[in-house]
Structure formats: structure tokens, C-alpha cells
Amino acid sequence: MQTSDFFYNLPKELIAQTPLEPRDSSRLLVLGRNSGEIAHKHFYDIIDYLEEGDTLVANDSRVLPARIYGKKLDTGANVEFLLLKQLSGNRWETLCKPGRKAREGARFSFGDGLMTAEVVGVKDDGNRIVDFDCDENFFATLDKIGQMPLPPYITEKLQDKERYQTVYSHELGSAAAPTAGLHFTEELMDRIRSKGVNIVYVTLHVGLGTFRPVKVEDVTKHKMHSEHYEIPEETARVINETRKNGKRVIAVGTTSCRTLESVAAEYGEIKACEGYTEIFIYPGFEFKAIDGLITNFHLPESTLIMLVSAFAGYDNIMNAYKTAVEQRYRFFSFGDAMAIL
Q1: Which of 43, 113, 224, 326 stands the most exposed, by the fewest C-beta atoms within 10 Å?
Q2: Range 67-145 classified under CATH 3.30.160.20
């Protein structure tokens, strides 16, 4: 299969720049996984497609406000740092712009001195190893001075940082939001639970690699980035009970899907565990863990549109995307949703 097989024409004006209020007012395209049939709803209608005993599995990772702006101490030059990965304590792998100002030994100040930093190493790929220092707790300081690392296709400033977090976000560590979950409100989740549907959580910290384009034409030659995941005991227990009772396990987002399918592929079952996954799901993949998927509309030629094509069938997905464009759905992170059931 070729990467170009997953291209579709998307008018630029359909890329959502701001989130809708309330969260669950976004549109919902419901796609029959086997039939390919399409229904047009709103996200709050998702409850009508869930049955007592089903289990929703959501990713409770919380996005770091990882983009910080500061100045080089000796020259006052403006710089932008993007925190990529915590290495130990206050030492981070960081993307620095402009890179020429962030040579080894260079020192910087952020938030009018609330945080300082020194470059202690330069990696082969150009990323910097940076030691940060602040009087308060590092993450508390970051919350004060940092901005959300919004995807490159969102150009408008986010007014409320919490709108790029799910209402159930808990475990800090993602560089991007698990966006399928952005549509849920506390009230909708309460209504879902009242119907007898379980809601449990996994954690997968989303890396910036999620936005990395597929640069090879042969899909099978693409190498996925690595992301850390964790499945708690309670989540594993509920999922296995759901399976035993003949009910459905429905992943909220591709990150939850990838977590569950990674564990099922490695262990043959869902069990409490943690680790790193580089799983790449594309057509031909045999799903072992999920029966349904709630997701957003993904970029052309991305690994995520390949994943949903594997789950619902290539023809069904490409037809659904064509329909969504014709019906003027909103696309990508702040856009509308799709339920494949």
C-alpha cells in the first residue's frame, strides 16, 4: 500500500482553528464498521450508540504547556524552547529556535527570571539537552510561563489552556492532546455512566512524532516514534470482564487504541503493565483488543488515517472522509468527531 493512497483533498477553511462550546456540541459522523453506512449526528448523541455493559477506554494523559519563550542571558536575543522529553529531574531534551543561539554552555531566562536554563549538550538530530532551574516546583513554574504546543496547522492563539486538555486529563506528560477526548463533558460522562457503560483509563504520553509526516511511499517502510504507556489494574480487570460478558470495548482515540493493541499483541491479552510502544497500525492489521473507536478526522497521508482505515476498511474511510468534506465537517484537533461502531 502506498502513502499516496491515503491522500484526500481538504479545503483549508475546514481546518478548525478554535474549539466549539460546549465541548459536546461538535458534529459526529457515525460510520458502520462493517456496513460503511453513515449517519450525521452531534457528539452528545454518542450515548445513543452505547449499550449497558460496554466499556469506553480513554487516555488520561495531560498536555504539558511545553512551549516557552525567553531571552539569551548574554545578548537578550529572543528564543523559543519546546520541551520534548524529561530525561531526569529538571534535565530535558528540548527543541530550540533559533538553534544557533543555543550552543552548548549558552544560558537563558524565561518568565522574567522565574526559570533559567543552560544547554549542556547537543544531540545528533539537533535537539538540545537542557538543564532548567527555578525556585518553585518545575511543573508549577511551567504552568505559569508555558504555552500549549498546538499543532502547526492551528494558527490562532488559544484563549483558555484547558480547552486543549480533556476534562479527565490527569497524568502530565504529553506534547499533544489525545484530541478525540476533547468532545466529552463531565455531564455527558455522568450520563454515559448512568446508562451502565464503564469508563476506564489508560495513559499514553503523546509525542510530537504524532505530527511527523510519512516520508516514504511504501507504507510498510515507515518507522513509528516511541511513546510511553501504562495500563492500571482496574482498567485491565474491567476490559477483561467486558470481553467475558460479550460486550464491546470502545477506544476513545487512536492513542487508547494503540495502547490496547500494543499490549494485546505482546501479551495475548489485556493486563496491567507499562512500557513503550512503536506499534504502527495500517490496513491488514488484525485487531485483538477493540470493537469500536471514537476519533477525530486526521491529516491526509498520516499514520492516523492509516490506523482508522485498518479498523473500518480503506474504502469505508475514504468514502467517509469524502462525505465529511462535502458536508463541511471541521477537521483535525479542534474539529468534529467520528465514531466507528
Answers
A1: 326
A2: no
Q: What is the DSSP string of 227-271?
A: EEEEE-HHHHHHHHHHHHTT--EEEESHHHHHHHHHHHHHHSS--
DSSP-derived 3-state class of residue 169: coil
Closest-CA residue to 185 (of 23, 21, 18, 20): 23
**Under 8 Å CB-to-CB from 34, ≥6 apart: which residues?**
none
pLDDT digits (tens, 9 = 90+) for 82-127: 998 889 899 999 999 998 899 999 999 999 999 999 999 999 989 9
Tell me which residue has cell 469524502. Answer: 322
User: Cα 43 to the chain's mean position, in Å?
Assistant: 18
What pLDDT band is residue 212 in, cutting at 50, 70 and 90? confident
Instruction: Decide: pTM greater than 0.70.
Output: yes
Q: Which helix (H) or strand (E) holds 190?
A: helix 186-194
Please state which CATH number belongs to domain 3-63+160-340.
3.40.1780.10
The C-alpha atoms of residue 30 and residue 45 are separated, in whole angstroms, by 10
